[in-house]
Amino acid sequence: MPPQLPPPLPPLREVIAAHGLQASKALGQNFLLDEQLLDRIAAIPGSLRGERVFEVGPGPGGLTRALLRAGAQVTAVERDRRCLPALAELADAFPGQLRVIEGDALRIDPQAECGGPAHIVANLPYNVGTALLIGWLESDVWPPWWKSATLMFQAEVADRIVARPDTDDFGRLAVLAQWRCSARVAMKVHRSAFTPPPKVMSAVVHLLPDDAPAGVDVKLLGRLTAAAFGQRRKMLRQSLKAVPGAVHALAALGIDESRRAETLSVDDFVGLARVLGESAL
Ligand code: SAM
What we know:
Blueprint: H1 12-18, E1 31-32, H2 35-43, E2 52-56, H3 62-69, E3 73-78, H4 84-93, E4 98-102, H5 110-114, E5 118-123, H6 126-137, E6 146-154, H7 155-162, H8 172-178, E7 181-189, E8 194-195, E9 202-209, H9 218-230, H10 236-239, H11 246-252, H12 266-279
Parallel strand pairs: 2-3, 2-5, 3-4, 5-6
Antiparallel strand pairs: 1-8, 6-9, 7-9
Bound molecules: S-adenosylmethionine.
C-alpha cells in the first residue's frame, strides 16, 4: 500500500488565532510554528512509526502534529486548558493516534499513562524542564520506562547536560545525565524560531539510556554530586566532608583529595558512589 498522505491542517498561526492562544509567560509558552523545523525535531529519535511518544506541553500542537505525521502514538500532557480544543481537532485529524491529558507533567505518572516503553519528545516549558529531566534521570529502575528523550532546553541548560569535565558547565546535571545515558546536543535552535522569541538561544538534547553501571545507588550519587558541586571551588577534602565516608572513598580510589569536583570524570563519581555504597553494607 502506498504511504498515506498526512491530513491537511490549518497553519499553526491560524490555530493560535482561532483559539485565542496568546502565549503565557507564566506557563513558559514559546511556540514553534515552522513545520519543517518541527519535522526535523520529530526525526531526531529515529523512526517513530508505531512507537509510543510522551509529549509534555503540546500547546497549540506544532510538535504534536509532526510526531503524528511521523506515525507515533502520542500521549501528551498539557496544563493550559485553553489549548485543549485545538488539540482535540488534531486528535480528530489523526484518529486513534493522540491522547491528551489535562494536567501538570510534574504530577502525573507518565509510565502508567503511556502504557509501555515510550520516547519522550518535548519542547519543554523552561520553568519545569530541568525538574522533569531530573525526575526521569533519577529513576530507580533502569533501563527506565523511556526509550529515548528528545528535549528542547535553553542552550545554557543543554550545555550543562552534555558538559565534559574540566569545564565550567560540568556539574551535577552532567553527572546525572551521563552516568547511564549517552547525551548529545542534536540541534541548536535560534531564539527567532519561537513565537514569542525567548531572550536566549535554545538547543535540543537527545538522551539514550545505556546500561547502568553495577552496584551504584542513584541517591548516593546525587548526595555526592550535590556536596561536591555545592562548593565547586573548594578541594574535595572540604566539599565532601558532608558525606560520611566520602573522603575515605577518595583515598580508596587513589583520587587526590586536593582536587576540585569539576576535575573528576563521570566514572570517578560513579566509582566513589560504588565504594561508598559497599562500605555502607
Ligand atoms: N509544544 C509546543 C510548541 O513546541 O510550540 C509548546 C511548547 S511551550 C515551550 C511549553 C508548553 O508546556 C506550553 O504549552 C505550556 O502551557 C505547557 N506547560 C507548562 N507547564 C506545564 C506543566 N507543568 N505540565 C504540562 N504542560 C505544561
